[in-house]
């Protein structure tokens, strides 16, 4: 362990089950999809609790604050549901962001399809305090390093997307071209007739564009040079083993090819699929999808925090979100 990581672990104070002090810890929650509308269900009939989901977030923030040792929180996107009446979108997004801001520390957000059903990305990104680092593109990918030995990479899976950009934007046109080539259905949100991983070519997903791919490569090269371990966060899952195929990033395979060129990425975390799942891929990278707050029946929860060590991560879940350990010494299958 680096000396600076050791100091952060000491400052963190709290020992885990193995009696070790994490270097740092952070809170996680996904798919709050709040809307002030009655309970309903997904397209395939899974119950959704649009008003209760913000209560899950309220309980998460209380729990994260009570923990006292969480360094930051990561929200995996879709804070407001597409069912939110459009004249209430801005108010609803502000209400959820305000709830996150009750956490006594930084909150890192990412955008999801439901965020973009409510507000265009150029309005959304400032509200979520996602900075573009002076770029003229309203991109939503970024990285940060909470301690010298670790780096977080937050991907923008709606970079190439038919939602969120102006309708004549090159990224919208590129997305519509992909959809017309890959999905023959008139309703481009429908995966009907598509087989296996091709089911991902639906309009509620998107892709990482070329510039972002080059940026990812540069960041991973830099992290490798700095001997940092990397945790990749994305609204859209990156491994078919951790999600239903209709929820995958369109070019998850290309992103994983870049990730697999390096040895620094240890864990990929995602939301969107709503049903929590875990997998380990052929290169030993762990993948974990976080259960949706939206689908918690009243009185139940799905949030947690992750303890970060030198050689593993440990997810401590509440209620529907199951504990998961991600050990970095797992065997690689090739
Ligand atoms: N077969 C389908 C599925 C969905 N739609 C419509 O697409 C929009 C987005 O769907 P939704 O399930 O709300 O998206 P989430 O981001 O919450 O979930 C993603 C994964 O599906 C979870 O597994 C919505 O308008 C649906 O009605 C559709 O037309 N046809």
Can you summarize this structure?
It contains 8 helices and 14 strands.
Give a description of the structure.
The protein has one domain: Metallo-dependent phosphatases (Purple Acid Phosphatase, chain A, domain 2, 4-Layer Sandwich), CATH 3.60.21. Helix content is 26%, strand content 20%. The protein has eight helices and 14 strands. The strands form three sheets. Strands 5-4-1-12-13-14 form a six-stranded mixed β-sheet. The chain has a six-stranded mixed β-sheet with strand order 6-7-8-9-11-10. A hairpin with a 2-residue loop joins strand 6 and strand 7. The longest helix is centred in the middle third of the chain and has 16 residues. Bound molecules: ligand LZXBYLUK. The site of the ligand Nc1ccn([C@@H]2O[C@H](COP(=O)(O)OP(=O)(O)OC[C@H](O)CO)[C@@H](O)[C@H]2O)c(=O)n1 has 16 residues, from helix 4. The ligand Nc1ccn([C@@H]2O[C@H](COP(=O)(O)OP(=O)(O)OC[C@H](O)CO)[C@@H](O)[C@H]2O)c(=O)n1 binds next to helix 4.
- CATH topology name, in short, is Purple Acid Phosphatase, chain A, domain 2
CATH 2nd-level architecture? 4-Layer Sandwich
Broad shape:
globular
Alpha-carbon Rg, integer: 19 Å
The assigned structural class equals alpha/beta
Helix content: 25-40%
Report the sheet-strand fraction. 15-25%
Low-confidence stretches: none
Number of strand segments: 14
Task: Sketch the major β-sheet.
Answer: 6 strands, mixed
GO molecular function: 2',3'-cyclic-nucleotide 2'-phosphodiesterase activity; ADP-ribose diphosphatase activity; CDP-glycerol diphosphatase activity; manganese ion binding
Subunit structure: Monomer.
Organism: Hibiscus syriacus
Protein name: Manganese-dependent ADP-ribose/CDP-alcohol diphosphatase
């Amino acid at each position: 362990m680096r000396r600076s990581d050791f100091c952060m672990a000491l400052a963190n104070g709290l020992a885990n089950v193995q009696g070790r002090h994490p270097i740092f810890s952070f809170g996680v929650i996904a798919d709050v999809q709040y809307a002030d509308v009655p309970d309903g269900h997904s397209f395939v009939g899974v119950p959704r609790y649009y008003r209760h989901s913000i209560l899950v977030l309220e309980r998460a923030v209380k729990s994260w604050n009570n923990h006292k040792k969480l360094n930051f929180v990561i929200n995996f996107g879709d804070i407001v549901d597409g069912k939110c009446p459009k004249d209430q979108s801005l108010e609803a997004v502000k209400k959820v962001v305000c709830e996150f801001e009750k956490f006594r520390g930084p909150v890192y957000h990412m955008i999801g399809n439901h965020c973009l059903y409510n507000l265009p990305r150029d309005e959304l990104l400032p509200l979520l305090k996602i900075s573009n680092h002076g770029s003229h593109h309203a991109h939503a990918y970024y990285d940060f390093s909470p301690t010298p030995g670790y780096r977080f990479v937050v991907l923008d899976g709606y970079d190439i997307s038919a939602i969120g950009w102006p309708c004549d934007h090159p990224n919208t046109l590129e997305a519509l071209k992909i959809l017309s080539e890959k999905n023959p259905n008139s309703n481009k949100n429908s995966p009907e007739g598509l087989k296996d991983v091709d089911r991902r070519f639906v309009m509620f997903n998107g892709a990482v564009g070329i510039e972002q791919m080059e940026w990812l490569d540069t960041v991973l090269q830099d992290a490798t040079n700095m001997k940092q371990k990397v945790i990749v966060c994305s609204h859209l899952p990156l491994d078919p083993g951790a999600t239903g195929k209709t929820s995958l990033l369109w070019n998850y395979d290309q992103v994983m090819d870049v990730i697999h060129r390096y040895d620094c990425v240890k864990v990929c975390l995602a939301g969107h699929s709503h049903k929590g799942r875990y997998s380990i891929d052929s290169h030993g990278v762990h993948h974990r999808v976080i259960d949706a707050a939206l689908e918690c029946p009243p009185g139940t929860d799905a949030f947690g925090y992750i303890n970060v060590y030198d050689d593993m991560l440990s997810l401590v879940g509440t209620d529907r979100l199951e504990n998961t350990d991600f050990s970095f010494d797992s065997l690689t299958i090739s």
